Amino acid sequence: MQSVVITGVSTGIGFAAAKLLLARGFRVFGSVRKQADADRLKSEFGANFTPLAFDVTDEAAVFAAAREVRAALNGETLAGLVNNAGIAVAGPLLEISADQFRKQMEVNVIGPVIATQVFGPLLGSDPSLKGPKGRIVMISSVAGKSGNPLTSPYSASKHAIEGLSESLRRELMLFGIDVIMVAPGAVKTPIWGKADEFSGNSNSPYAPALQKIRAFTQHLSEIGLPAEKIAEVIFTALTSPNPKVRYQITPDPMRHLILGLLPKRTVDKIIAKRLDLLPPA
């Protein structure tokens, strides 16, 4: 039985990926931060699911989880690591704190770095393990290729994941470990509804734009792809004999194609007009 580690499985893409992979015969080790989530998922998913209790930024806790996974593998390699856990910090860059920005990067960038360093040997860089080499799936975003206003911390973190994945894919060729990016557009997940959403105050010159982008993200959550669609792409990335290096999946691919073809200054003006970010006449 092939085994995978997925970070951040309590909700959203991580939950959907764990559910799908279990249904298709994988053993899944999934990270959660709360014991209540561990108990809930263990009850729901059954014997082939093992909850791992760690925050991706807690290196000692991730190491402890890796020791647990290594023991369970009993000398075999890990088939996959899905670096999925993430948060979204948003707001005008001039008004958010450095600590808020730092938290975004700690979770979305340093977290995958820690997980990759800790679980990498189990994927096959440790020559004492037997079995096929594993793969790393990095959950990026369309924001990894473009930067929307008022979400610069999130966009910066996903741009970092894109560059990290590109370099890492080439580094890990030495061990036969592949690195594949999955870059969703709008997805029906709770990420934008959590506590770090849209820092700003009512007296800010950005207040009208913040109101509009809140409404826009609510719209995206309504039209977004179900997390199960992203889970299918993760399954493909883990199992295809010839996977792409990057899979982009969005509910509106034509819009992304058109915006990608337009000059950047034109796109700037379109977005600024839509969000009330143009200077007063």
Keyword list:
281 residues, alpha/beta, 7-stranded parallel β-sheet, 9 helices, globular
Question: How would you describe the overall organization of this protein?
Answer:
The protein is built from nine helices and seven strands. The protein has 281 residues and is an alpha/beta fold. It has a seven-stranded parallel β-sheet, sandwiched between helices. Helix 1 crosses helix 7, helix 3 (59-73) runs parallel beside helix 4 (98-125) and helix 4 (98-125) runs parallel beside helix 5 (152-171). The radius of gyration is 19 Å and the shape is globular. It starts with a strand and ends in a 7-residue tail after the last helix.
What is the topology?
Blueprint: E1 3-6, H1 12-23, E2 27-32, H2 35-45, E3 49-53, H3 59-73, E4 80-83, H4 98-125, E5 135-139, H5 152-171, E6 178-184, H6 207-223, H7 227-239, E7 246-249, H8 253-261, H9 264-274
Parallel strand pairs: 1-2, 1-4, 2-3, 4-5, 5-6, 6-7
Helix pairs in contact: 1-7, 3-4, 4-5
